[in-house]
Each structure stands twice: as structure tokens, then as C-alpha cells.
Request: fold
Amino acid sequence: MINDFGSPKKILITPLNWGLGHATRCIPIIRQLLDAGHDVHIGSDGGALQLLKDEFPALPSVKLCSYNINYAARHLLLGLVFQWYKVFLAILTEHQQVRHYIKVHQIDIIISDNRLGCFSRHTRNYIISHQLTLLTPLWIWTKIATLANHFWIRRFDECWVPDSPPPDNLTGVMSSARRLPHVRYIGPLSRFRSMELPIERDCVVILSGPEPRRTGLERKILKQWATLPYSMLLVRGIPDLEIALPELPTNVTSVSYLTAEALNRAICSSKFVLSRTGYTTVMDMIVLRKPCILIPTPGQSEQEYLGKRLSSYPGFVIAEEGSLDLSLAIHQVLMREK
Reply:
């Protein structure tokens, strides 16, 4: 896909700041673009922007608007439906911000990861998304949300799906493209590479995602881990925030976040991984072939759907947050490792 761009261009990369997954899966694309001689700019907000600025400190960047969504609803996507006006205003605002930025910096190409307003009639526009069908608990809302999603995706010249084509795709019905003619399946994206390293700990816990869900899971894991005989590195996934931790158990160390290279090494030097069921994490674990406990975010239909699909995949153990039993989940993942 990068080869399609021809001679060096000015390219703006704009991942959504919804957890860190959208930003992290842009890292291998940015690396390829830089290797090909392109002039890359980055645009986002919050933790996603901070992560990319830390990974690529020499690249010019622009802060885009935040979507300012309240994630306390029982069903996250239904919560988004009832906050549609915030999403709509954010799309319009980021569209205006991008229009100004490309005019000032003479941008040729925009690659957006799920930022629906990051396109322009003066550039070539690409969107990265595996969520072509937006799942909700109710079929009518699924249909409405998907139609709205397709309306915005059609504003782009091409949609890149980081998955294999059906029927071999990990994301199942989510990446079905029956009504979108300009879809290209580019295969799973990962910023990581497999490394043979000595094992330094039992587990690396990788947290991310919107608050207050991230903090709630963090507290639950730490409370149970205090009674377990396993060593753990906690990667909190909060590069732009200062959220205090209680006193940690002696078998736990913690960092706010790690660069791609440092996290790559941490994963490869751990026996197994514990994380949310984000699709970026799933792609990373498949590339690294690392056993993993996945905890779907309650009410987030995408993660619940992925959890059901992956429950029979080798190396994955799916644990429900509401009835979380880490002792049992760890036993299961270590048995699968054997």
C-alpha cells in the first residue's frame, strides 16, 4: 500500500485517542513511510498524541480536538449513540483543524485511524478501520450506527482494514465490507517483532482504554494479585495523566507506559500477558505468539464479540471482568502455554 504513494509526499497521520490501540497500530505504518522517504506529520490528542510524539520526537505534530465522551454507560456504544452530538461536533471540528493544517503545511495525503473528520478534497484520504459494522446490543442501533459510519467512511478514497479478507478474518462480521466498494484488507498490523529473551517475570499487564473503566480494572487486578505468587509488570497505559496508585504488592512493579521497543522486550521476557480484548492487542499477541489473558470491557460490544471468537483460539484465555478470578485464568493460560 505504501508503494502506491510513489515519490516522497507530505503525509499526515491522525489516530483516534480512544485508548492507545489506534495510535500504536499506526507506528508500523509511520516507520514504513519514513523508510520510503516521506515527510510524516502526526495529529491526535491526549495519550495517543503523547505516545506518538515520544516514539517519533522529530516529527511535526498538531493537537486535534478531543471527542470528550463519557464512558460510564453500561453499554459503551449505546452510550455513544446517546452522545452522538459530541461525536458529530468533534468530527466537524477536527475537519476544520485538518483543513487549516494541510493548507499551512501543504499536506498531500491524510491517513486517519478512525478519525472520521480527517479528510480533505485537496488531498488523498485513507482511513484505517476494522469496525465497518458497529456492533451494539440492539440490532436496530447496529444498523443505524453502521449506516452513519459508512456515510463518513465513504468520504475517504480508500478504507484499509488491518485484517485478512473474509472468511479468514479475525474480526468476523465487524470487517464485512459488502456495502463499501473501496476497502483494502492489509493484514494484521503490529509494532512488535518476536525476540528470544530470557524470562524475567511471570506476567506483563497492559492496560489502556477510556476512564473510568481503565482504573476500575487496574484496581481489581491489583487487589487479587496481592494474594498470588506471580511476578508482574504493570504497564498502566496513561502517558498523559497522573493517576496515583495505592501501595503495590511486593511482586508488582509499575510504569505509566513504555515505548514500543521497551514494551516489545517486556512482553517477550514475560511468560504471559494480561490485557483488555482490544483488537490491536490481539494482533500483537498473534504476531508474538505469546499466551494471553483477555478481559473484554463490559458493555463494549466489539470486545465482547472478539472475546467469543477468540475463546477457542490457541493461546488465548477469556476472563469476564464481573466474575474475574485471576488465579483460575492464570492456571488456564499456563496450561495452554504447555
